[in-house]
Amino acid sequence: MRPRKPDPTPQSDMFRESLEAILDPRHELLRLAARIDWDRLDALYGATFVEQVGRPGLPTRLMVGLHLLKHIKGLSDEAVCAAWVENPYHQAFCGETHFQHRLPADRSSMTNWRKRMDADKLEALLAETISIAMASGAVSERQLERVTVDTTVQTKAVAHPTDSHLMLRAIEWLNRAARANGVRLRQSYLRVARRARKEAARLMHGRGHKQAKAHLRFMRTRLGRLIRDIERRIDGDPAHMEVLATVLKRARTIHGQKPGDTQKLYAFHAPEVECIGKGKARTRYEFGAKASFATTNERCKGGQFVLGAMSLPGNPYDGHTLGAQLDQVARVTGKKPARAYVDRGYRGHGLNRAGLEVHVSHTRGITSPTIRRELRRRNGIEPVIGHMKQDGHLERNPLKGIEGDVINVMLCALGHNLRLLLAWFRKLLWLILALILFPNSTARSRPA
């Protein structure tokens, strides 16, 4: 059933003070909450629920607010739920009128709510942050026409995929699946596989490389025996064959893959993980999914806002993704970009559109000083991506599957924009106080 809408005129409580009476209305979280169109978001996200069936869903403002707070502060689901109970400003941001001593939801409610989301619904939240930035003066319409586009790797929360680690995980998953489905095995190989994995990790990068290879062959042999044992025992049983098909397929892939193969499996529980090389000196290869971001080229008054965010499964060529990224920017901002600045990874993009100029960095022969100046600003997108990795959840994404990659990229962009808006509201408050206390001073000077 659709979530219940909060009462617009809540009844006063004789024994408790309202949050409105005890909180500072100038706090940036309260000012941000007052500018968000919660009714439009409730109409959009409430459509994912069925009518008049089942228990009413949790309030949309509560669930959206928890996810926004999570990515603003860089917290986990458990941490943001704990902080909500302790912080009255978090409760007021999520629509509560009186202080609550218990969260009216569970941590798993956030996971279930995310399963109802997709990129289109989260684009509405991203567009809401841009409209708030424009209404508050943090960004102007002209600055939305010049964008910078770049790609990065959204790493997955998986262990480094060594051969010994993958084969041990395959043996563990096969044993777990066989035990859950009542398949009795001749031998589990768990004890000897764990010991061989430890010895291989210890010897691989030292003088015992040949002994480490012997331990890997030992593990590969035991994994093959385990696969064949399960296949013999479920042969002729369609029910067990259907249930164990996915686990057996992934185990066969790990058992047979070699160093030069393509389409490898890098994580048993996350087959969507890809090996991506971005040419970094500190990290030759990263394991996750490619992500594309578009930001304002000029650093606005409130900072450099993210105008578009996409997950790119399959590790496509950067130039082939430029058109889709610019289309998303037009949907989010309502304005078509006039100039796009990219790095040399986009050479040969072949994108020809009326009213659009694409400039690649280190291009010679540009006579316009404006374009040269804006092209130098292209590097400004790198610290934006770094902030999303350091302050948000773009590094070691914990969400599951390709859908989790899409949702996490959008929420990381939302968290970055909201952090800029909160800083912008704090700056505005300082300027207002400075004008009140020091009316003869200039707007640029700030009291010590």
Strand percentage lies at 5-15%
Overall, the morphology is globular
How does the helix and strand content classify structurally?
alpha/beta
Query: What are the segments in which pLDDT stays under 50 over at least 5 consecutive residues?
Result: 443-448
Number of helices: 17
Rounded to an integer, what's the Rg over CA atoms? 27 Å
Secondary-structure element series: HHHHHHHHEHHHHHEEEHEEHHH
From the N-terminal CA to the C-terminal CA, the straight-line distance is: 54 Å
The beta-strand count equals: 6
Q: What profile does the largest beta sheet have? A: 6 strands, mixed
Which range best describes the helical content: under 10%, 10-25%, 25-40%, 40-55%, 55-70% or over 70%? 40-55%
The overall pLDDT, averaged over residues, is 91
Describe the structure.
It contains 17 helices and 6 strands. The protein has helices spanning 19-22, 28-35, 38-46, 60-73, 77-86, 88-93, 107-114, 119-135, 163-180, 190-203, 209-234, 238-243, 245-256, 322-333, 369-376, 381-390, 401-437, and strands at residues 146-155, 274-276, 286-296, 306-312, 339-342, 357-360. The chain is globular and about 85 Å long. The termini are far apart. Strands 1, 2, 3, 4, 5 and 6 form a 6-stranded mixed β-sheet that branches. Helix 4 packs across helix 17 (401-437), helix 9 packs antiparallel against helix 13 and helix 10 (190-203) packs antiparallel against helix 11. It has 448 residues and is α/β, with parallel strands linked by helices.
